[in-house]
Amino acid sequence: MGEYTGRIEIARPPAEVFAFLADVHNMPHYLPTVTHVGPLGHHGDHDDVAVEGEAGGHAYRNDGWMKAEPEARRMSWGSHVLPDYHGMLEVTNAPSGCTVELRLSLTPKPEVAERLQREHGTVDHGMRLAVERTLGSIKACCEQGGMDPGGRDAPRSADDLPDSRPFGSSATLNPDI
């Protein structure tokens, strides 16, 4: 299993950024392969979610879980189908706003590992680039019109959010990895 981490500073208040990221309905705006995320219910300390999208020309659906801890500004998630896949995101204070740190644990499928090796030299390098693209996408959504200008902890409507797809494929919810 590979462990991949990254961090990025965002010029927005930490509570505002966390509220945006923890709302499952916003995920398609910063995760390029995701087209729809919907809640499936609350179970114990987490929410079950259904993630739908397209990756590598193939549609997918993956049921998983997500746990948001607003007081710690931390979010964790995983898949019910892929037991070795899970991640965590944490939003902390920074002088210019906040820092978002992303930690991802997964083992890419053999065909994906082969493609990453071919395209990026190593699987680890390809995965690090995917994490960086995901963080860049989050930054773009938060700083370029994806947050409420009034400072409230709520995103604007989906029509007002920038499309993250120019940042490439996402490692964080892509079931093909």
Automatic annotation (TrEMBL):
CDD domains: SRPBCC (cd07812). Pfam families: Polyketide_cyc2 (PF10604). Transmembrane segments: none annotated. Residues 143-177 are annotated as: Disordered. Residues 167-177 have a biased composition (Polar residues). Residues 150-163 have a biased composition (Basic and acidic residues). This is SRPBCC family protein. The lineage of its organism: Bacteria, Pseudomonadati, Pseudomonadota, Alphaproteobacteria, Acetobacterales.
